[in-house]
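Page 47, continued from p. 46.
Same chain as before, 158 aa.
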Amino acid sequence: MFRTLARPLLEYYSVVWSPYQHGHIKQLQSVQRRFVRFLGCRSGMRYFDVSVDELSAAYGLRSLECRRRVADISFLYRLINCQINYSSLLEMIRFRIPTGTMQQHLFELSHTARNYLRHSPIPRLMRLGNGICSSVDFFSTSLRAIKRIATDSSPDLH
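Result:
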């Protein structure tokens, strides 16, 4: 029921509006946590005795933050590989031109003076892409493999 009714509303257009403030992230995640506690109560546990993390893993519910990260990286992959035909967005992606340094980043990030600019969609996508580009090749790795790596990557890439 949660996967069908609630999660699509919580994830709708998350590539555009993905929260970056911890309070907002916790508020969204609390919806899923309450649902997991409800499942535990339906299984005979007391509400506060429910181990949310264990029960989430048992039901295969990844955190919403992890799901947003995977959606972001999937969108970036599709945009770069022309599976999404939106040239004005693709023009905003700045690829790093290698110069001889050992830096392995694929995308060139510019300094932003404001948090809202740093966490806006395109810079956030490029930052996430740089976070996993050492283990994937965005041009030859399959989307399925990239999703798996994005799921396993650390949550502090945000």
